[in-house]
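Why do we bother with holo predictions? Because pocket geometry can differ from the apo form. Keep that in mind while you read this record for magnesium ion.
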Amino acid sequence: MSKKFYSGDFEKQPQEYPGIQSKMSPVPDTGEETYQGSNKLTGKKALITGGDSGIGRAAAIAYAKEGADVAINYHPEEESDAQDVKAAIEKIGQKIVLLPGDLREATFAQEMVKEAASQLGGLDVLVLNAGIQQYQYDIQKLDSKQLRDTFEVNVFSQVHAIQEALNYLKEGSSIILTSSIQGVKPSAHLVDYAMTKSCNISLTKSLAAQLGSHGIRVNAVAPGPIWTPLQISGGQPQESIPKFGQNQPLQRAGQPAELASAYVLLASDESSYTTGQVYGVTGGAPIN
Ligand code: NAD
Ligand code: MG
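The structure, written out:
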């Protein structure tokens, strides 16, 4: 088993949604020190939603280390995490564009894509990774605001962003959605979230079929339990935090940096014949 990543218990550490990575203990590993690049994305221009923290941040750092220029979107309350990403990517030596904004606003997703393409000078890779997860054990207590918020961020904003991005993406471009093990193996306390994660998978498959003739690939990554702000800011009950991830075959939660290679592969020309697929990074739980 890899000794490189944290495998102990976690302390309970509640935060308000959307959660700040720098306040977590241990701070999630998003690859600033651990990811090694090798020019797999030289010259590409990528937009990553939820790029301030967790899995999206690991993708942003890895993309920059692979030679891409990167724009990240995040919720305005996450400015401090976003500034840390900006500093890290400037140190790597790539361009970084910050695009704060709330993806629950219907028009924002389109404006975000326009702005990314304008400031980066084009767009080759679109990573739709932002997500809301708020646990609720009782469907009768699932209020309509939560239901709407979850669908607006996790599903509707993806459609709006893709509609706009197709004005810029061309043959060889790649769209990557972050789904979840919840999309195929839903938990009792994540009814609304799991529904949206199934939507991510069906969108991946239908869109791959629709865009294949344009040479644009569409794939999803389906993570298992990963140590990120989403989990401690309402994604799980605090009682589940200490042993979070330990029921997986690899017996620990994953760190965001352990997903970076999947996002790099799916963005790069090395996966030129891969589309409509769901890539599981789950610590061992089967996704098929
Ligand atoms: P995270 O908290 O680091 O990232 C989620 C991001 O979503 C936030 O940083 C925020 O920028 C963005 N976001 C949320 N609400 C938003 C809004 N209203 N407007 C704009 N942006 C908003 O957590 P993460 O776990 O890295 O999450 C990234 C993706 O991974 C999500 O889609 C999540 O569903 C998925 N995922 C996570 C896990 C896990 O165990 N952590 C497992 C499976 C799937
Ligand atoms: Mg965040």
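The chain has a mean pLDDT of 98.
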